[in-house]
Amino acid sequence: MAKKTKFYVVWQGRQTGVFTDWKECEAQIKGFEDARYKSFDSLQDAENAIQRNYWEFVARAGQKEAPKPTTLPPASIGKPLKEAIAVDAAWNTATGDMEYQGVYLQSGTKIFLQGPFKDATNNIGEFLAIVHGLAYLQKKESNLPIYSDSRTAIAWIKKKHANTKLELTPRNKPVFEMLQRAERWLAANKFTNPILKWETEYWGENPADFGRK
Fold first, then answer.
1. Per its UniProt entry, what is the enzyme's top EC class, as one word (predicted)?
2. Which residue numbers belong to the known binding site?
3. Packing angle between helix 122-139 and helix 151-159, nearest 10 degrees?
4. Alpha-carbon torsion, ordered 141, 190, 78, 113, to 10 deg
């Protein structure tokens, strides 16, 4: 009997998305702190899952209550700051298109929207969104914090480098040009805006989410 194909969803890892090969999935999660992933029996289920919250599927797997992060106990999280902006990206697993946007938390007003861009990744979108937000706030001479729900993108910002394994193609060349400009901006500019993790498990969806779940 032929071996049944599994589809692996990585919500949090070196690269996020849907993978059809376990070795490829394992490369994204092995040794990655707080990796979040799960296997599915069909591509449709996997593509639906990547657009939803990881904890929903953990709970469905039989846990009565979704586990809470051990590094950030609920008592220390509190509530998100209202005087801030939030950024987020959306990645289409079928087409590979990516787009990102930013909003003011206080009013929900959209302040920028970019894309879609061909053959990109969600992590790249999250990284570009933070840099766009920083540049926007710099022009406004504002020290507002920026919320992102991507630990990977926040880590890339700290290193001032997008550590993507995405291969350059004619279709995604504009994305790589944007990455280079973003990295040059980070290298040339100083900023004091706090880059904060949006705690989806406790606060709900990122206000900059595209709402396609």
1. hydrolase
2. 88, 126, 149, 209
3. 60
4. 60
pLDDT value for 180? 96
**Which residue in 104, 103, 105, 124 sits closest to 113, CA to CA?**
103
On whether the CB atoms of residues 91 and 100 are closer than 8 A, the answer is no
> Phi first, then psi: what are they for 173, rounded to 5°?
-55, -40
CA distance linking residue 103 with residue 81, whole number of Å: 13
Average pLDDT over residues 60-70: 44
The pTM (predicted TM-score) of the whole model is: 0.67
**Annotated binding residues for Mg(2+):** 88, 126, 149, 209
**pLDDT number for residue 208:** 94
Domains of the chain: 7-59 (3.40.970.10), 85-197 (3.30.420.10)
